[in-house]
Every structure is written in C-alpha cells, then in structure tokens.
Amino acid sequence: MDLLLRNAHLVDPSLGLDATGMDVEILGGVITRIGKSLQSSAEVCDLNGAVVAPGFFDMHVHLREPGQEYKETIATGLTAAAAGGFTGICCMPNTEPSISDPFVVSYIKERAAGHLVDLVICGTMTKGRKGEELAPMAALVDAGVKMISDDGGAVRSAEVMRRVFEYAKMFDLLVTQHCEEHSMTAGAAMNEGHTSTKLGIPGWPAVAEDIIVARDILLAEYVGNVRYHAAHLSTKGSVRLVREAKGRGATVSCEVTPHHFMLTDQAVEKHGTMAKMNPPLRAEDDINAIIEGLQDGTIDCIATDHAPHAMHEKETDIVSASFGIIGLETAIPIGLTYLVKPGHLSLSQYIEKCSINPRKALKLPAVQIKEKERANLTIFDPHKTWRFEESDIRSKSKNTPFVGEEFTGKVIGTINNDHAYWSN
Amino acid sequence: MTVSARKRLQPQPPSANGRVFSSSDRRDLLTIEALPAETIIGLLDRSDEYLKSLIATGPFQKSKLLEGRTIVNLFFENSTRTRTSFELAERRLGGDAVTISPAASSLTKGESILDTVHVLEAMKVDAFVVRHSASGVPAFLAKHLPPHVHVINAGDGAHEHPTQALLDAAELRAALGNLRGKRIAIVGDITHSRVARSNMWLLKKLGVHVTLVGPETLLPPSVGEVFGVAVSHNIESVLAESDAIIALRIQLERQSRGLFPSIEEYRERYGLTIQRLARTRAIILHPGPVNVGIELDHEIASHDRSFMLRQVKRGVAVRMAVLEWIFSN
User: Fold this and answer.
1) CB nearest to B20's CB, from A203, A271, A316
2) Which neighbouring-strand residues pair with B97?
3) Separation between Cα atoms, residue A204 and residue A223, nearest integer Å
4) What's the DSSP call for residue B100?
5) B157 with A319: Cβ contact below 8 A
6) Which of A69, A111, B50, B259 has the most CB atoms at less than 10 Å from its CB?
7) Which residues of B touch A269 (CB under 8 A)?
8) Are A317 and B137 in contact (CB < 8 Å)?
9) Angle at CA A163, nearest 5°, toward A162 and A166?
10) What architecture (CATH level 2) is domain B3-160+315-326?
C-alpha cells in the first residue's frame, strides 16, 4: 500500500511530536518520509488538517467467538475496531469455551490472521473462569497470551487470587481483574444510589468494586513484582485506591470506559436496558473522580469493554437483560467530545491513554510516527460535529444507547499491517 | 360522568416523551410519579362515585363504557386481589377481560415478554394490565406497543403500584378528609416495596407529611432525600403523631438473606400490636396479604380503625375509575 497523507496534524506524545501541515509518505506499509509539501508518486490523500496519531489500542473487547457468533465474530469485531479507529485490540476470554486452553488461542489467532487490526489475546486466570483452579498459564503464554483475567466476574477467593498472582509472576503476565465483590451484587441491575432507590431496581454498590480493588492491590503488593491491571474502573473509591497504590510505587495500572465518564446512572431512566452495564454507570462525583484520575495519571488507559449482545437479550426487563454495550465505534467520538473538547485532557494526553499506555501495560512494542517505522496510525477529525446513526454500526450487534447522539470528533480511518480502512 | 369530573379528567400534557420510566403522550397509567395532582384527585373523585354503586345492594348494573374493548391482564407475577379486582372492574364496565399468567406458559418455552405481548396484541387488544417482578416492564411494553393500545401498571418490581396508591389515598381521604398537612407513616420493608414508592409519590403530591419506619437494612439508600420524606427506625416514634399508618408485608425470606435478625425482633420494633394501637389515633392500612402476628396483631384486622377490607372494596372502584380515564380520550 502506497499513500501520501497530505496536510496532517501529527501528534505522537511518545516523541513529543505535535506538528500541523505535515505530509506522511507510506510505501509498502512503512513510513518512508515525513515532511512539508512532499512530492511522491503514491496516491495522495488530503486530510485537511485531521489528526494522525499512533494507532489506538483497545485492551478490553469481547469478540464472542468462539461460541456466541450470533452476537459478534472475530471478523465483524475486528472490522468494527478498524472503523472505530483502533489498530489493535485485546479480546477477553469469556467465550464459549473460555480461553483457558491453548487450542482456543490458536483458533482465535488463525481467525484473526491477515487483518488490519492486531489482535492480542487475554486468557483466563482460572480454569473455565470458575475461580477454583489455576488456568494453564504456561501453555497459554506459549500460545501467545499476553494478559489473564476471569473478566465478566472477579475471582472470589482471596486465596485463589494470591496463587494467581504468584503463578502469573513467573511469566510476567499482566493480571487483569473485573472488580466486583459478588456477595454484594447478586441480582443487581444498576448502580446503588438515588436512581435505584427511586426506580426500585436492585443496586450494585460502588463499595463492592472498591473492596476488590483494595484486596487485589494488597495481594499484589504482598506477592511483589506482579503486574496488576484493574479493568473498567467506575468508582471514585477505586480511583483513590489506585492513586494511593501508585504513590507507594506498586506496579498497578487501570482503565476506564467511555460510558463511565460520559453517563451517570440516571441514563437508566432514559435508556433502560441499554444503560445496563457491569460495572454499572455511576454518579456525578464518580465521573468527576475519573476525570481527575485521567488528568493526574492515576488512570492509564481508556478501553471500551465492547460487549455485543443480540437485540432480544437487551429488549427485555432490566433484571434479565444482559450487561454491556458495544463501544468500539463510539469510543473516540465520546473521548473527543467529553474529554478533549471541554479541555479535561489535551489531545496529546488523550492519545497517550488510547495508544501509548495500553501497549505499555501489555508490554507490547511501542508504535511511533517516525520514518522507517511501520505505518500504524489512527486518523480522526477532532472538530467534526455529526450524529451517530444505527447505519454507522459495523459490529454485528447494535446494543448501544448512543444512536442519535451528537458528537464532536469523528474517526476518518486507520492504517496498519499495510492496509487502510476509511471509516466513511 | 358530571361535567366537572370530566374536566378534571382531561389528558395532561405529555411529560418527558419516550422515557422508559415515565409516561408518554398516549394514555397509560405507568407511574404515580408522572401523574399530576389534578389527575389523581379526579381519579379519587370518580372512585367515590363507583364505590357508591359497589356498596348498593342487589345485582350490579353493568356499564357499557368498555363495550367492545378487550383488556388482557398479564400477570407475570402471582396476585389474587389485584388481579381479581382488575377483572371485576373491567367486566363491570362492560369490557371483555382475559387474564393470563405467562410465567407458567410461553416464557418457559423461550418466548420473550415482548413476543408474548406482540402475539396477544395481534388478537386485537385495547389495553394490557401488567404485573411483573422487574421494575420498568409496563413502561417498556408501552414503548413497544402501538399508541392505541393502553398499558396499566399493576405492579412492577419494587418500582410502582399506582392503583394501590390510588386506592389507599381514596380511603385515607374518605376517613381523614383533605390530606394536606396530615401525617402518615409507612412501616416495613421499604426497599422491596412498590406500594411504598407509589404511596410516597402520591401522598407527597397531596401535601402529606410522610415518615418511613423500618430497619436500616430495609430502607434503600438516600430514600429520605429522594422522596422528600422523614425516616425513623422505631415505630414508637410515629404512634402519637400519625393520622394513618400503612403497614407493609414483610417477606419472610428477607430474614434468611440477612436483612433482619428474626421475626420476633421485627415484630418487637415494627409490629402494630394491640398495645401500640391503643397509643395512636391512626387508622391502619395494609396492602395485604397480612402476615398475621408479625406486621399486625390478629385483633387489629377486625378493629374499627382497620381499613383492610375497605381497601379491597375500594380497589375495584379505583380500577374502574382508572379504566374510565384510560379510555376517555
């Protein structure tokens, strides 16, 4: 693939690069020249000043294959990722069967081969995500797993969790937890707070997240030299706990989802089951704490928790409806509209959370915008105002509360592995 | 219907269109929260009229108000008094009533609640009366039904039970007169009670001072703030001041879930005993069914300040008034 990107706003925080009016020549998928007013035989693509950033990486995606291909497949999920501006994603292991077995890893790898989007695979921490016996981590690592998690639920037993940390440490595996004290959340369908009190919906209290974040940080520190990553944090309490742990020098990282800094639990009144997530949407002061955490570096990454579900799993009562929404194709518009536009994060800080830090947490090779590097790029217009419509969705599922939502900031395309995807 | 009553029953401007938990511009009864005070008073007035016809002896003169109308009572959760009372109200107004409990049939065969409702609607149904164990189901169904098909909430999860609140208010008004400034206590498991929530909305709209009484473990977080009510942890504190006490049914399985230590301790602190009745002038309401000897002493059921049977009779009158209002545009 040969391309000349004309008039780009290049932003690469890892290089301190922030330059407008730049041209980038890509020949055979490699960045050959960066400069102003370049002459090239390659096809010219005028970006009219759009931002070109190192390719975004979403470290929390549910691809549903194998086992639930009616919700999403590896092919549709990766296309949605490319359309949403991601050149790499990590898929979570709660498939059927779960990723507790190296053969499942190989199967997924084979299905994802040759795509624009790089796929990193997360294995389970315990066999079948049952929270009882350790997953075969050595075999999973040999098959290529970079991270482990029983996502969808937490490991309940502190003793099992201690052994997960100890065993994972031998392979320098990133240990990711879905932080939920399950004894406090049975039957819960939304955040416990004013809105749940008003609507009479069983509540999922914020402290049930904080407890597991605290437990895991203590265990990780006790075991020592283990990399712990708290997935999709939603509460002010867990932001504080991670901040304190980082202050002590603990090797802790964490992520938040776009919906957790955009919407409060009041969205349940408007969107019903489309606002049912796990962890649930929280309160205003949780959003404020998340924004502060993003600003001061407590929160490293933004990840989507893309969770496709068929319509019939959402178009039902709030208690039996499935948790989660698709997120790959709205993540960047939400980030630009709710973080960058109001000035909570600079463009450069935002790109760090979406591109640099996830790869750092996973210890993946850095992606940079410089000559002789492979072109791995996310291109977006941070100023374009537009309305997200159902026809925009490339994911196989359409469970999102954001249809009809106005955003400022739109993905233009992605370039990676010698392919380009133009979003519209 | 008199001219003045009809005027009061005019449709109110739609509020918060398309929201899942409040009513839209069609005529449904989904919540008390969304119902303006004037509409509530109009419904109470009409229930007074219907009550007279229910108290009269001799055969009941069926009305033709709902002639040609088909109403399906869709009870996903068990009920005796609410279901029967809706059925009687529908038939006495001349409508055709069908009652189904899908819990035992289609749903176990994999049919969703939405499919069930669409199937029934295809048979030409004018209204659904819906009870479900999850909050928000009547509103969810209303959102998916065409505008000419009405939905009446007969109790959704711990959210609302609008007709229960209306019948309670009608009896409270009949006994106490204008409710503005009156003091009413609601005692028991507030967290899991749709009756409590609908009563709080309604009584607040009519200017009542409401106090909730229950153990901390059965009060949802910030309930005082959310509903603008007072909260107490001991029934003794409300006996002297209350004009009425609404006791709620305590689900015995809450004890095994660790929400209170024992039935004895619950009765000791929250039960309306005959001794306590002597220390209050309040009238006593209970949505039923009563756990005799726990929420209420046996003797209270037959006491002249006990309103349980009057509530049941009023239930039919209120549901007739609601049906009349639903179909009156």
Assistant:
1) A271
2) B71
3) 29
4) E
5) yes
6) B50
7) 19-22
8) yes
9) 90
10) 3-Layer(aba) Sandwich (3.40)
Q: Which domains does chain A have, with CATH numbers?
A: 3-52+371-422 (2.30.40.10), 56-361 (3.20.20.140)
B82/A60 Cα distance (integer angstroms): 47
- CATH 3.40.50.1370 residue ranges for chain B: 3-160+315-326, 162-311
For residue B114, give the nearest of A194, A268, A316 by CB distance.
A316
What DSSP line would sit under A335-401, residue for residue?
HIIIIITTTSS-HHHHHIIIIIHHHHHTTPPP---STTSB--EEEEEEEEEEE--GGG--SS----T
Which of chain A's residues have a Cβ under 8 Å away from the Cβ of B19? 269-270
In this complex, how many residue pairs, one in chain A and one in chain B, have their CB atoms less than 8 Å apart? 76
Chain A residues 238-297 with CB within 8 Å of chain B? 268-272
What six digits make up the tokens of A313? 């799993």
Nearest to B157 among A192, A200, A203 (CB): A200
Model confidence over B40-84: pLDDT tens digits?
Answer: 999 999 999 999 988 888 888 889 999 999 999 999 998 999 999
* Contact assignment for A315 to B112 by CB distance below 8 Å: yes
A401 touches chain B (CB under 8 A): no
Å between B112 CA and nearest CA of chain A: 7
Q: Is the ipTM of this complex over 0.90?
A: yes
Q: B133: which chain A residues are within 8 Å (Cβ-Cβ)?
A: 319
H or E element in which residue A270 lies: helix A267-271
Q: Which two three-digit tokens encode residue B295? A: 């929420």
What is the DSSP pairing of strand B70-75 with strand B150-156?
unpaired
List phi, psi (to 5°) of A23. -110, 145
- Cα–Cα dist B170/A344, whole Å: 53
Q: Are strands A419-422 and A406-416 parallel, antiparallel or unpaired?
A: antiparallel
Task: Say what the pLDDT of residue A391 is.
Answer: 97
For B203-220, write each residue's pLDDT tens digit. Answer: 999 999 999 999 999 999
Q: Which listed residue (A12, A305, A381, A418) is catalytic? A: A305
Rounded CA-CA distance A163/A249 in Å is: 22
B208 CB-contact burial (10 Å; exposed 0-12 / middle 13-18 / buried 19+): buried
Q: For A77-173, list the strands marked E by DSSP.
A: 86-91, 118-123, 147-148
Asked whether A22 and A36 are in contact (CB, 8 A), the reply is yes
- Is A2 an annotated catalytic residue? no
* Rounded Cα–Cα distance for residues A318 and A187 (Å): 10
Instruction: Please give the share of chain A, as a percent, with pLDDT higher than 70.
Output: 100
CATH architecture for segment(s) B162-311:
3-Layer(aba) Sandwich (3.40)
Residue with tokens 């009608």: B170
The residue written with tokens 């997953």 in the block is A135
Contact flag A270-B20 (C-beta cutoff 8 Å): yes
Distance CA A183, CA A299 (A): 27
Gap between the Cα atoms of B25 and A276, Å rounded = 26
Of A194, A200, A270, the CB nearest to B158: A200
Q: What is the pLDDT of residue B112?
A: 86
